[in-house]
Structures are given as C-alpha cells and as structure tokens.
Amino acid sequence: MLRSDKQAWIADMHTAMTDADAVYVAHYQGLTVSAMEELRSEIRKVGGQVKVSKNRLMRLALDKTDYAGIGDLFTGATIVVHGEKVVDMARVLVDFVKENESLKILGGASGAEILSMDVVKYYATLPSLDGIRGTLVGLLQAPASKLARVFKAYADKS
C-alpha cells in the first residue's frame, strides 16, 4: 500500500470514527468469507459498517477521537464495527457469535466510555429504541383504558 493510500485510509477511518456513536472490535480469524459477508449484511441492516482493520493504521485513525482508548484492542486479525445504533449493533454481534464461534468480541467504546466484552453482551440484552417507545406508549395508555373501563362498568350498572 502506498503512503498516499495509507494517509487516505487513515483520514477516511478518522472521519468514520468521529461520526460513529459506537465502535466494537473483534477478532475474525477462522471466519469463512460467506460468514463475513453475512455479518456485514446484518450490520448494514442496522445502519453500521464492518471494516477489516490494519492495526497500526487504525490506531493512527483513532488518535484525537473519543475512541483513542481502545487502541490496545488492535492486535491480530481484527475487524471494526461502527455506526450510530449502539444497542442494535451489539445485539447483531452477540447473536452472530452464538452461531459462529470463530468471531471473538474484544470490546469497544461508546463515546468516551470503553466497553468490555461483558458490557457489549449487556447492551445486546437491552430493548431497541422502538421497543422502548412501544413500552412507553403502553404505559401511557394503560391509565386511560382503565378509567374508560370504570366508566363503562358504572354505566352498565345503571
């Protein structure tokens, strides 16, 4: 790779890391090409991207971003998953690991907070934003429906 290509790659990844709400790092050694394509597809569905990282260049790209603290994770054959939907990407990664043991989640970061593998697994158990909205709407509608039932029961009684 030419020096100019490396500088362009670093600049592109620096921009991507600056714009991302979360970054996850994993080892992919042993994954088949079809499994890697399946992972890319699933991550793309939730608005994220998967990049095979060049470790030294990735550390340079992370410099002067919120994610500079995860530079130590970049050893061996690593991929970077980044995007805006923190919980959805974690859920896809954890579900993918259940089917493909070759993928090993090392950790990640969300903002300036460094996430261990256990925290990534915890994020995967959280409900999605749509799920939270549905629960909230249900909670707001419950008192009104109970009140309507009381009035209806009183009206039926008369």
Explain what this protein looks like in three dimensions.
By secondary structure, the protein is of the alpha+beta class. The protein has 6 helices and 5 strands. The chain folds into 2 domains: 3-126, Alpha-Beta Plaits, CATH 3.30.70; 127-158. The chain has a 5-stranded antiparallel β-sheet with strand order 2-3-1-4-5, with helices on both faces. 57% of the residues lie in helices and 17% in strands. The chain has helices spanning 3-19, 33-45, 55-62, 86-99, 117-125, 129-157; strands at residues 22-27, 48-52, 78-83, 104-110, 113-115. The relative contact order is 0.16. Helix 1 crosses helix 3 (55-62) and helix 4 packs across helix 5.
Keywords:
57% helix, Alpha-Beta Plaits, 2 domains, 6 helices, alpha+beta, 158 residues
Q: Could you state the CATH homologous superfamily of the largest domain?
A: Ribosomal protein L10, N-terminal RNA-binding domain
Q: Structural class, from helix and strand content?
A: alpha+beta
Number of strands: 5
- Could you spell the SSE succession in H and E letters? HEHEHEHEEHH
Total domains, how many? 2
Rg (CA only)? 22 Å
CATH architecture grouping of the largest domain: 2-Layer Sandwich
Strand order of the largest sheet: 2-3-1-4-5
The proportion of residues in beta strands is: 15-25%
Poorly predicted tracts of residues: none
Average pLDDT across residues?
88
Largest sheet: 5 strands, antiparallel
Q: Name the overall outline.
A: elongated
Distance between the termini: 85 Å
CATH fold field value of the largest domain: Alpha-Beta Plaits
Top-tier CATH class of the largest domain: Alpha Beta
Roughly how much helix do the residues carry, as a percent range?
55-70%
- Please give the count of helices: 6
